[in-house]
């Protein structure tokens, strides 16, 4: 029978403050581990150690989702009406559009789902566990509270475990806490039961990776009770939001539905007023309503998004759902992770200081092939032989007092292993003094004081080429400096009294630049062995600053985001000082803000955020450039605060701790290379190269998509407006209708079926990335499109009606010929109108004709189809048309060109008023 009940599980505060000797008692376990029978009973009680994850949508659900759209609802209603009035041709066309639209959307989402599934890690980890005094390999899902786990390097923790023995344990918790640097773990109890997650150094959390060291730990929480499980529960409770495009299409569909009903009512009223038969009026109303219904819009929107998705994929951006593609163009705030997104996720040497010398080091090549270049010095030329020789002496300490491994394989590749700090030191030495690495391979230390989180330094005794012994020490400046009595003068190669105040000031300045500072020291030694307490009377030789450098492309992308009116906020688990330094390096922090004041003015840490009310947080958002030391709940709270201010928020992340915010954001962007499965499944978009520059490019492409959708809407609505004005004008004047129902269908088919799709392939325009983000405020029908539509609708309607009336009079009342001329006029208006719709701002005469060859092809195809409509016998019989004389063709074409000129004049007015740069 299981002795431990769920209600008896110790609290987190009890676990982290309990003395090591009492941890086993808290979990009713022992150093020998649980008995096998007890472990089985606890597995039945607590359940498998499994964290719930998102399961992919079944295919039927993906297919069903394609029909969940307000515009689709309107089209289905229109199809039903045409079916009731036996207008089967319209019914078939509308349903074909609906089905084709669903097929394209289904295919894209299915492909994205398959790509995400391919990224999943399917292996179940095996954990070494002591049970009944015997160590056995247990599947991670069978761990239970009270199990004694053998901690070893390379192991990924599968549950929350309190350490009871730790020997130099170093854990990477970046996927959980956001802390980019591995954390030293200890077995000693903590004093504060409310210690923050990132500072709980005596617990290994589920999802963390043991980088170095060994020890033992007792499982204290599994499955949903672990910190990882709690995050998964938060993610499950967070409801995803509708994308801005979905909201705009919903508003547009409602407007369209109301407008169609109103138009039908107006048509009925006018028809009855002029004495038309009720059934004739009803059929005219249905024909008119169907004529203005932009049945091609859903499929064109899908085509626009599919093209954008394909262009994004070429930029290493994988979009999981089509509407999410356009959302990138609506974003006005990006909450971005730091490590691996803004930075390169690798530690490199940035600064070397020894004696009076100072050198900056640039490293922007891959880890396997570092290319380090000295870029400057403050007091000398860094390429002088004397200076380089003194630099080699400094690096000798970094190389010999180092446990990382750096080797070349038979294939010529470089392999590195060890702590990031020590690896960075060896990489710098590999370029600046490669002979030191060869000498290190043949000369190992005679004694070593290993690094520990308590001592914060390491020391080695090394025999030099002369045969004499030397003591080398490397560690944190606050520990090494008190152990130094002298400082090295490299010009004279001798010791001089230590100027501790100067070095402490230098360390502070380097820390403000976001660098981890390593102090290097040495002294003469007279025996092969050394103890930790003997590492005194040292000579300080210099300091080396190490940091995770920013991605160069991220710096440029952030500059582009600021020019585009997008606010970028860094959200990280790092220390506020580090966050402020990185913010300055990537242009998030304004130059006028002193770097020493940034952690207090522009950076908010987790403790400050916890003390803020929601109102205080919202008031502070405009001044904040970074949030540091944040928890998953903090990140989620920041996103919700931004959304309450009507901001469209994109969130980037790679860790388990990012999943709730990724799901809640308007668009979640996960890292595909380094991201966790939880982050990828919670996100809408996955970056295949983990680069912030790809996010910026996705924003640019998203804006292009929205603009192309607006172009298509303008084309469809303005063309429909022309038909409506012509028909209503004829009804009001008591004239015969200029278009029959079948002819209205032909107009929509020959124009809306070709030109609108061609507009979906328009390339982007430069001004799009320089105007403020449209966010949630932008509407598909804004004042630009409404103005253009009024101009075009009146011109098309009046022009077609005028041609109809003139031909009717000139041909002694030949309605068939007059309707042929009216239909041809409307088709030619729309065929040439598509050229103007290529841009809502730029003149058609300034656009390269072949930048979108599909538009040119669609124009010729439209003209060719209309010639068949007018002159081909079978079509004459179907549509009741008659041949048009060449003179009338010339008049129709000339009149159509006036339509292009009218739009060009409207564009000039928009450019003059700068409406296109306003939101």
Q: Which properties best describe this structure?
A:
919 residues; 49% helix; alpha+beta; Calcium-transporting ATPase, cytoplasmic domain N; 33 helices; Calcium-transporting ATPase, transmembrane domain; 8-stranded mixed sheet; 17% strand; Rossmann fold; 10-stranded mixed sheet
Count of extended strands: 27
Radius of gyration: 36 Å
- Summed up, the helix count is 33
Strand content: 15-25%
Shape: elongated
What structural class do you assign from the helix and strand content?
alpha+beta
Under CATH at level 1, the class of the domain at 269-313 and 701-917 stands as Mainly Alpha
Helical residue percent band = 40-55%
CATH topology value of the domain at 269-313 and 701-917: Calcium-transporting ATPase, transmembrane domain
User: CATH superfamily of the domain at 269-313 and 701-917, please?
Assistant: Calcium-transporting ATPase, transmembrane domain
Mean pLDDT metric: 82
What is the correct CATH architecture of the domain at 269-313 and 701-917?
A: Up-down Bundle
Report low-confidence residues grouped into runs of 5 or more.
115-124, 365-373, 376-381
From the N-terminal CA to the C-terminal CA, the straight-line distance is 68 Å
**What profile does the largest beta sheet have?**
10 strands, mixed
